Amino acid sequence: MTITIRLAVRDWDYFTPLALGDIKPKGFTLAIDRVGTLPDDLAHSPHYDAGEVSFSRYAQSRARGDESLLALPHFLMRGFRQRCILTTEDSPLTELSQLAGKRIGVTGWQDSGNTWTRALLRREGVETEDAYWYAGRLTEAHPIVDRLGKFGQPGRIEAAPGEQPLITLLKNGGLDAIFTPFMPDGYFSGHSGLRQLQRDFRQAELEYFHAVGYNPGMHVLGIKPEIAEAHPWLPEALSEVIDQSYAMWMNKRIKYADTTPWLLDDLRRTALDLPANWNDNGFEVNKVMIADFARELHAQKITEECLTPQALFPWSCR
Length: 318
Prior knowledge:
This protein has helices at residues 16-20, 55-63, 112-123, 166-171, 201-212, 225-230, 234-255, 263-273, 283-299, 309-312, and strands at residues 3-9, 28-34, 50-54, 70-78, 85-88, 103-106, 132-135, 157-159, 177-179, 194-196, 217-223. By secondary structure, the protein is an alpha/beta fold. The protein starts with a strand and ends in a 6-residue tail after the last helix.
């Protein structure tokens, strides 16, 4: 009997060939559930067998000795973080080093993306204790939830005053900058009053890539270990079929490059500026990035132990 894997992922466009059946798994059936919010506890979910999980939260569970979830070094979400630092259009701030002593809003302290963004500041000599941090919802449309966890520090890392949205605080002068993985509604209207702190953030990201050699990973592919033990071939097969879907989708982007007026130019510039394997999955090709992230988690006191890449992805380096 063919096994069915119930997969929870965000609505990434490269899953389209899989969702439409243009790419079909071999040896198993894949039921894709596109979710707006990732499952809180995939390991014990009665609804899913595998899915997209936060790299940070997965690493934290591993650091606690929790082996209830197995993850592969397949990065379903990657992204440079220079673009994720916003300020107001009239702000005098243009360099990361200028954030020393400033008030910074974050949408979640332990989030993978914000961990990577704080790593950018650390590269410029701005440590956590060199700024004032406020965690909160990005806009009024987002829910009021605990975004600090156990990482709050009175006077240094606190909840946003009065649970005000970070965008509101930024615009009224209560914050100097904010870290956000996604742009707020209205940002692309041209009249938001907001901008990236580094005006030429693309160039900053390119220089970062040449310095470190990778595009940071935020979310990994998780699967329940009992499924992997029962079907040892399946984790790699799942990873490979997602890669096949991505490859087909990107090939179609080259042909149908009119999604935006200049998508064709962006595809061309990406091919010129980055190596062909910039988005490859797997252990060896991502080993440096995995090690750097583990060191950041430890340096930022999110994990007590500095994990090795092998400890994070034991299945993939057996």
